[in-house]
Amino acid sequence: MGGASAYLKVGLAYYHGKGVPKDYKEAMKCFLNAAEQGNASAQLLLAKMYFEGRGVARNYSEVIKWNRMAAEQGKVKAQMFLGDVYLVGEEVAQNYSEAMKWHKMAAEQGIADSQFKVSAMYHAGQGVAQNYSEAMKWGRKAAEQGNSDSQTLIGGMYLGGRGVTKDYKEAAKYFRKAAEQGHKSAQFYLGSMYEQGGGVTQNSSESMKWYKMAAEQGDAEAQFKVGAMYCTGRGVALDTEEALKWIRKAAEQGYERAQKILETL
Hints:
Blueprint: H1 4-16, H2 24-36, H3 40-52, H4 60-72, H5 76-88, H6 96-108, H7 112-124, H8 132-144, H9 148-160, H10 168-179, H11 184-196, H12 204-216, H13 220-232, H14 240-252, H15 256-264
């Protein structure tokens, strides 16, 4: 048939059923020929077929093997996959050093999700020595691409003064960016800042607004805060029925302060 690119082309035709009947086994044969000749795209497709069990029995060892080969040639999807697999320990032993290695490769190619994960691992000291400066560096790269997890992490670093001078205004700025994208932890933190007047002008109505957004996404502490604000009439009209509704929601998730209040009723 020829070289790796020819095998890849025919394999894709069989895979998608273009010009020939769809046939995963034939696609698998072609991808294997191309992959063994070092074609990174074929290696990635081969890993996908082993993962999905198409044209071959599902085999996670082969998934890792072929993704690794593709990742070593710079295939960012393979790098991200390996990073995630080792980060969570999915069908392999959890290994933060390997997770950091592969996510950093993807991060260096500009992938925001990997940049966040590199930042988070530096922040927690997972697979690498804890380094807040590196956490901030990679977190900013992801945050600038709109990654809400990174925006929340950076907000927390400014709030706690980790790796940077404590700055409540910067914290609120980053929490707002993430909160407006629907990040529930950022919504909770922004609600807390409006409640306390940290980095923003104290405003109970705004506090309630952001707490309620987080509460509606299932954040137990936010649910308790919403209940407490309905109970006292801060930022909202006093409503004991709504107060109990939200406090019960928090209690049902195991939030201890909410449970203790219900025990007294």
